[in-house]
Amino acid sequence: MSDQQGLFVKMALDAWNNEIKFTNALLDKLTDEQFMHEVAPTRNRGIYLLGHLTAVHDRLLPLLRFQDVMYPDLSKPFLDEADKAVADLPSVVQLREQWKAVNTTLTDHMGRLPAADWFTRHASISEEDFAKEPHRNRLNVVLSRTSHLANHRGQLVLLTLR
Amino acid sequence: MSDQQGLFVKMALDAWNNEIKFTNALLDKLTDEQFMHEVAPTRNRGIYLLGHLTAVHDRLLPLLRFQDVMYPDLSKPFLDEADKAVADLPSVVQLREQWKAVNTTLTDHMGRLPAADWFTRHASISEEDFAKEPHRNRLNVVLSRTSHLANHRGQLVLLTLR
Question: ipTM surpassing 0.85, yes or no?
Fold first, then answer.
């Protein structure tokens, strides 16, 4: 590992950890009942966004080559289907626990990965393609998912007044 | 410059440019009238978010040590004040033009900055502090503003159905 790699890993993980911290502070402020509201008329409900984010972060575990997903049952209702298409969703209480468990597990793996390993390929790109496109590495996945989380956090904050 | 620095810069600027591209595609879909709506009941209107994002990106020009701000008049209504606190906002047509001009100017500067220079200090940190905290560099500002843009894009998209 080089000092430069360590610096850039810190920058990317700081951005990720900040976004997680802001999101957790927001989720703690929301009541279970507020999660049942739509973020705006006709749009996704808070419960769907919470499940969606949990499912997306859960899939980061294999994508970053850390381990298997923890909650495969979240994929169908929160990735394959739109909000309100599935009648029996998990409870908000359960989703809050799964959200925390997934992110704690992720953060543990992230903190242990040596800086140089962040610049190796993620699980969805072949060795061949990665040789040609070395920016498609594990750390780049974190940059992309940080924006994804920021995007949906901007929507979840709209629940706070209702 | 090292190859590694070039790779980091590409990763961070790709994330920025993607977010700008997605936002521009969204703004092109919205009518001027849709910008006058609130993203959710009682929340910011589209016109405010467009002005806010333009003002924040305009301030990146001096923060990244590229040049002076282009539209200093945007600060008061879109940074200092909340939505609906200022009666006479610029028109949506004008804000769309300023949004494009600011981002084109930013992108030009960004594309010309040598990779090593991205890892020098931004304008709001002293040489002294930067020596202790080298992660607070110009590229880190881009990571942070990419999340900021993603956050508000998640809100602007709620205008599309209304």
Answer: yes
Min CA distance, A24 vs chain B (Å)? 15
Summarised one tens digit per residue, pLDDT across range A52-84 is 999 999 999 999 999 999 999 999 999 999 999
Check CB contact of A134 with chain B, cutoff 8 Å.
Answer: yes
Domain that holds residue A80: 3-161
Q: Return the number of other C-beta atoms located less than 10 Å from residue A14's C-beta.
A: 16
* A15 chain-B contacts, CB cut-off 8 A: 140, 143-144, 147
Contact B150 A155 (CB under 8 A): no
**Measured between alpha carbons, how far is residue A13 from residues B45, B73, B131 in Å?**
32, 35, 20
B121 phi/psi in degrees, rounded to 5: -70, 150
Span B102-142, pLDDT tens digits = 999 999 999 999 999 999 999 999 999 999 999 999 999 99
Total number of domains constituting chain A: 1
Please check whether residue A133 touches B, CB under 8 A.
no
Q: Taking Cα atoms as reference points, which of A111, A118, A160, A158 lies closest to residue A138?
A: A118
Best residue in B1, B2, B4, B49 to probe A by mutation, most A CBs within 10 Å? B4
Mutate to test the interface with A, among B21, B151, B157, B159 (most CBs of A within 10 A): B151
Give the integer Cα–Cα distance in Å for B99 and B78.
13
Helices (H), B73-135: 75, 92-112, 127-132
pTM over 0.80: yes
Q: Which of B119, B134, B155 sits opposite A155 (nearest CB)?
A: B155
Check which CATH number belongs to the domain holding A142 and give it.
1.20.120.450
Contact partners, residue A18, CB within 8 Å, separation at least 6: B147
